[in-house]
Amino acid sequence: MAKRIRELAESIAAGLRARADPARRAVTEGYFPSELEILGVSAGAMREVMGLHRSAWRGLSPEGVLALTRALHGTGIHEARQVGYEVLEKRTDAMALLDRTTLEALGAGNDNWASVDTFATRVAGPAWREGRVGDAVVREWARAADRWWRRTAVVCTVALNTKARGGAGDPVRTLDICTLVVADPDPLVAKGLSWALRSLVVHDPAGVRAFLEAHGSELAARVSREVNNKLETGKKNP
Q1: What share of the chain is helix, strand, coil (3-state, %, to 5)?
Q2: What span, in angstroms and rounded, lies between the C-alpha atoms of 147 and 171?
């Protein structure tokens, strides 16, 4: 099994490398700088590689899928991590095996918003929503010294509130995490906070308004502006 997983991860990585675009890589490296290797592969091309290997990863056991996701994570390639997270999301039987230790291993080394957001919305957030980790774990992430774990925590709430991600709305847990990062000075955490609150608007606009009123003096200007825009017009930037 280990050899099969290793060969599949290598084949996926090779497929991604074959679709690398130097011009796209240059733009991407400026858009979200990272210590991970960035190939410059488009989302469509990543899903093409996933599709070419679909029968292989669908044929794995749940434990095998987790092992494949770990192997892709371990390549140090940004796009390989993205593919690993998406494959895991599509295998609910493997998602059911997630726990804190596994999640923190799969999120380790994410040092840019694109990797963090895919991990949080597709893997960690759904795992939290389904009870694979408790609220206390996500609160710890929200208080972490590492800016990327703080962003992970707040973006995890998006999975609670976005229908396309399986969310049905959870104002209590969302606002609890938002309160922990409300005065975070890091602009990338603030952007995550804006996204979290805007995702909740559809389920609890009154609660979001009350949050803005209670914390107005602490919030970054962009958060107040974008969330108020969403409340008034339905759009982040009308």
Answers
A1: 70, 0, 25
A2: 23
Dist CA 235 CA 6 (whole Å): 44
The DSSP code for 11 is H
| CA atoms of 34 and 97, how far apart (whole Å) | 29
pTM beyond 0.90: the answer is: yes
Summarised one tens digit per residue, pLDDT across range 37-50 is 999 999 999 999 99
- CA geometry: angle 118, 123, 129, nearest 5 deg: 125
Neighbours of 95 (CB within 10 A): 19
Q: What is the largest CA-CA distance in the chain?
A: 56
For the stretch 27-37, pLDDT in tens is 999 999 999 99
With a CB cutoff of 8 Å and minimum separation 6, the contacts of 173 are 135, 138, 157, 160
